Amino acid sequence: VIPHLPPHASLPPLARLATSGAFGGMRNPEKELNSRCSLPSSHIGGGNDIRGFEFLILFSWLIITALPVVISNEGIPHALRSLLMIPPVFILAGAGAYKMYELLINKIPGFYHKHDEFVKNSFILLCALLIVQSYNYYFLEWGNNPNVKYAFRQDYVAMGEMLNSLPKEIMKYVVLENNDIKVRGIPMPAQTVMFITDTFTLKKQAEKNIHYLLPDQEKDRSENNALFLYLK
Fold this sequence. Notes:
By secondary structure, the chain is mainly α. Helices cover 51% and strands 8% of the residues. It is built from ten helices and five strands. The protein has a three-stranded parallel β-sheet. A two-stranded antiparallel ribbon has the order 2-3. Helix 8 (154-165) runs parallel beside helix 9 (190-197).
């Protein structure tokens, strides 16, 4: 415990020597205690401000990972294409939250010492609420929403798995009814089925007897025992 002496109190000679300019100037025990208890300055940007090389990396990361969303013209805005933006967004948000906490601790005199338990308990409560809210929102509300399967095109995956389960000897045709956006002449929805069945190339399609047709090409196929599947 560091005693607080009134200005007029007399000190022993040895104490006066220890607190005099003989050891580099007057010492302030209370100030030293506060400096030891205070939080270190933010290392983001090398100082208290969020700037510098680290900020440049995060900002560049944010801009580069936004390019798949910006340059694409299908289904925008598209949440899946922006997944790579999540880390820099939350790192910057965390840095801002730490900066606010640091301001409360270091800029307001005696804040931490007066509100020590309040700050700790508030932090624990906030973390607990974030965990509960995230679990409820992601696993209960969002995970059980029937629209999630459609958004991730579970029907495309199911068709690909069904095609994988069929014998290679059967001729299989996937008719693409959605003719809006094409990738190498084939409507874009076929990409999921191609990935699941590993039939992106013409060679693979011939090996597995899985072919992709436009609606007007269906009438040209008259093989016996051919299987036609329709993908919207």
